[in-house]
Queue: 3 jobs
Job 1
Amino acid sequence: MENCIFCEIVKGDSPASIVFEDQICVVFMDIQPVNHGHALVIPKVHAASLSELAPDIGGYLFQAAQRTAQAIRSSSQMRCEGINLFLADGEAAGQEVFHVHLHVIPRYSGDGFGFNFSDRYWQKPSREELDASAKTIITGLVQQQDEVEAFWQAYTASLPDGVRPPGSYDVWAFGDTEEMANELGQLVRAGIKTATCSLLWEYEAEGDEDLPKAGDVSVITNGQGAPLCVIETVEVEVKAFGQVDEAFAYDEGEGVRSLAYWRSAHWKSFTRVCGSIGREPTETMPLICERFRLVFPK
Ligand code: 5GP
Ligand code: ZN
């Protein structure tokens, strides 16, 4: 993103006192610290606000902030009796730099930093008011799920008479950023992309997901979790990165659809994934190569 000071820091075009860096995030010292040791944790990918940030990257930032907080707490050089994690999302919330960042602020009693409260703060709301607030948020959470469920119902209703709908389905998005989820999801919906691959090591590292198999049905969402289409897995094969051929690269449907393009784009994204699980990318790294067909909308 142009004119974003934090993107410039990510690219190394602007000076920063870097604490930690991997494929996904960077931790560096705030230029105007609230207290000595105040650090910022940011995603490498540009996201102006939380709603633009893929939730798994948000989780990753929190983990990096937790480790940074621990390092600050255990140092004997910094005055730290407590820590605040703080994230300003939106101008009204105090956001000044529009590239998501999580503040890690060391605190000690009498440091002079704090929140201001309005008079309203001192009049506690009733239980009814709290329940009403909870209900409003629950409605928002349910709506996100409902949209996917309604889409699934539309798909099952579109099946010819006598065809039994699948008993269950997964919900997921392509790629590891919101941009990729939108871009690749549209290619799938347009019927251009009919193959995908992921790193077997990532499945092994996460350890809680079953490998895809022929017959699996999935609702594909965009980066904001809105449903785009339904696909059915047709074939799954584990192959080394170096064994992927022209035909598979073409079916992946990205860019110019050549093997050279596929290798360059996927090497980059697998390098990112490898970084997050502490491995090095190689020509022999095993990939789960999956072919699928678009079943809805058609
Ligand atoms: P916000 O109010 O958006 O949550 O916080 C922005 C933070 O970024 C501020 O604490 C500010 O001091 C810090 N900041 C702004 N520009 C730079 C910069 O160029 N380098 C660094 N390291 N921090 C910055
Ligand atoms: Zn940025």
Job 2
Amino acid sequence: MSGSDLIRAARQARRRAHAPFSNFKVGAALETADGTIVTGCNIENASYGLTMCAERVAMFKALSEGHRRFRRIAVVADTQEVSTPCGACRQILWEFGGDLEVILANLRRETGRRRLSELLPLPFGARLL
Ligand code: THU
């Protein structure tokens, strides 16, 4: 699967976002080590703080389906500027995915690629416990 296929899957997932409070819809597509694609979208809640980001939905879905090794994640939002995962998602992605490639895109084009270690330098992790 190419980066553009992964972006396409994230765009499709974004259409299922439940974002009535922010109107900021996000889609994610996580590629596992065996090439499976697991998608996610943000799901907001009236109490706001219970909102779950697209990236964590994708990761938790994948983990709950038994996947443990991951390669890349594509994240799509409708912004001109590059939109990157929030701090909480960076931490969760690091814990379960390690130094993933993070492919960022909007509705029309890819906006950037980063390693997760660039987005989350000096991470806290289980090895420190
Ligand atoms: N959000 C995501 O789903 N992923 C991101 O990378 C950034 C933020 C969601 C959370 C909330 O539903 C909305 O976007 C606005 O913050």
Job 3
Amino acid sequence: MASTSTAYKRSYGDRAKAQSNPAARALLETMERKKTNLCVSVDTVKPADFLAIIDAVGPYICLIKTHIDILEDFEWSIIERLEELAKKHDFLIFEDRKFADIGNTVAMQYAAGVYKIASWAHITNAHPVPGPSIVKGLSSIGFPLQRGLLLLAEMSTAGALTKGTYTEEAVQMARVHNDFVIGFIAQRRMNGIGAAPGEAQDEDFIILTPGVGLEAKGDAMGQQYRTPREVVLESGCDVIIVGRGVYGKDLSDIDGIRARAERYRGEGWSAYLERIAS
Ligand code: BMP
């Protein structure tokens, strides 16, 4: 049953006001303030490239997405620098950790270990595959720190198993824990999915969507790209996540990276303006 919730047609700023989770509110407020729905995914191996790219794209983004375990020679000063850049450019941090274990284990993976993700990432994500206990485990660490969680309700890759009742049950899980689960990694709007008629009228999950590219249609390993317009206007998603489309092949071409971030920001924002005007 699809929802009649029209939350996604309201402005990001307006939607921020109704969010109880501080990370969700901060993300939507940042989007409104900076006029951007672009999240750049910085999937680089060398810390120097990682930090230089973040500094270059900072003005154009609402959120930076990290895979912290890709970095070589990890040291804590990288996190300190990342936090400085987040302050300098006014963006939030999303660690794309994709937790997928039992509650007791994910709580330790989130709080401790080398990366201590909960201490610096405003937002992280999890696969719903273990069931509600994964949310309980992560929430026991993240909720008191005012963090937010995204569930992976759909993936962008060809042949992904995240469909049908799996996606529906992910939305049900989020609904039960909507103080901590702020939205989804998904390819379309999720409000109201699986809800009984009349239920979930006002729900407003934030949808962050990877698999966004203006040039390529995919890669050699199953990734599939759609344009910002398809994602934001046609599918009702909120944040476009762009990796290679922004940082490209030459990580030293900082001017090119900056220009591409500006372009994706423009495309994402005009699709959003068209959506809220419709
Ligand atoms: P790119 O734009 O270069 O294809 O990168 C996409 C990023 O989003 C990668 O970091 C990947 O791990 C992530 N991602 C994805 O591509 N599809 C999903 O369904 C979920 C993801 O987190």
